[in-house]
Amino acid sequence: MPTITLALSKGRIFDETLPLLAAAGIEVLEDPEKSRKLILPTNQPNVRVVLVRATDVPTYVEHGGADLGVTGKDTLIEHGGQGLYQPLDLQIAKCRMSVAVPADFDYASAVRQGSRLKVATKYTTIARDFFASKSVHVDLIKLYGSMELAPLTGLADAIVDLVSTGKTLKANNLVEVEQIMDISSRLVVNQAALKLKQAAIRPILDAFTQAIQKGPSPS
Ligand SMILES: Nc1ncnc2c1ncn2[C@@H]1O[C@H](COP(=O)(O)OP(=O)(O)OP(=O)(O)O)[C@@H](O)[C@H]1O
Ligand SMILES: O=P(O)(O)OC[C@H]1O[C@H](OP(=O)(O)OP(=O)(O)O)[C@H](O)[C@@H]1O
């Protein structure tokens, strides 16, 4: 059997992928929160997990550093998805991509008046496409985290960021004014690996598919 390498990011993607791996009979043998190791063995001698930054998952899979990976739709769109086969929506790490502004900013009238908006985001492709589709002029400011801070400091009028419970926005006195798209995580597969390692990859895809159809197991 060839070795199968799966790229995951620590945190919610790792945690929410574990039940799917279990459905495929794969158990990760070390806890990434306790170990400093970046390559984790599993109970299957030919399957290993590599831990990478969430934004690096598509790159690892595209270039064959990993055969498979789990990545958010947001990250996948920003990466471009080239060289990646995307067979499954895993229905995990669900949230939405939204536009948010300070509670006292009149977004609707700014849009109506055709004002140029300063928008801070990590997701410049998604933001550019969204505002272009609405014919809203924007100056995008690329950030790598803590987008919520940008309107509070005068860096931007609005942000484009992920929202789940809405608690982060609320805590920072921001309100959601547009929902751009629903987000969940996808399985991505290196196209060459899919052909060359089909016998090892196919059973994992099948088990994931069945587990998704059954829905999340009660915790
Ligand atoms: N609050 C949330 N609720 C549910 N899913 C989320 C939430 N925030 C992010 N996600 C999803 O989980 C993915 C991974 O998020 P995570 O916070 O682990 O990485 P990150 O900090 O965004 O990435 P990086 O470390 O590369 O900057 C995101 O790409 C998104 O699809
Ligand atoms: O609507 P909520 O439930 O509050 O979730 C939204 C927050 O979740 C994400 O951040 P995350 O918790 O992943 O932190 P990080 O990406 O900044 O590490 C996102 O960037 C928002 O800040």
TrEMBL record:
Gene3D superfamilies reported in the protein's UniProt record: Periplasmic binding protein-like II (3.40.190.10)
Taxonomic superkingdom: Bacteria
Subcellular compartments: Cytoplasm
Residue intervals of the ATP phosphoribosyltransferase catalytic domain: 53-208
Alphabetical UniProt keywords: Amino-acid biosynthesis, ATP-binding, Cytoplasm, Glycosyltransferase, Histidine biosynthesis, Nucleotide-binding, Transferase
Reaction(s) this enzyme catalyzes, per UniProt: 1-(5-phospho-beta-D-ribosyl)-ATP + diphosphate = 5-phospho-alpha-D-ribose 1-diphosphate + ATP
GO molecular function: ATP phosphoribosyltransferase activity
Pathway: Amino-acid biosynthesis; L-histidine biosynthesis; L-histidine from 5-phospho-alpha-D-ribose 1-diphosphate: step 1/9
Entry EC no(s): 2.4.2.17
Family: Belongs to the ATP phosphoribosyltransferase family. Short subfamily.
Subunit structure: Heteromultimer composed of HisG and HisZ subunits.
Domain notes: Lacks the C-terminal regulatory region which is replaced by HisZ.
PANTHER family: ATP PHOSPHORIBOSYLTRANSFERASE (PTHR21403:SF8), ATP PHOSPHORIBOSYLTRANSFERASE ATP-PRTASE (PTHR21403)
Function of the molecule: Catalyzes the condensation of ATP and 5-phosphoribose 1-diphosphate to form N'-(5'-phosphoribosyl)-ATP (PR-ATP). Has a crucial role in the pathway because the rate of histidine biosynthesis seems to be controlled primarily by regulation of HisG enzymatic activity.
UniProt-recorded name of the protein: ATP phosphoribosyltransferase
Originating organism: Hydrogenophaga bisanensis
Higher taxonomy: Bacteria, Pseudomonadati, Pseudomonadota, Betaproteobacteria, Burkholderiales
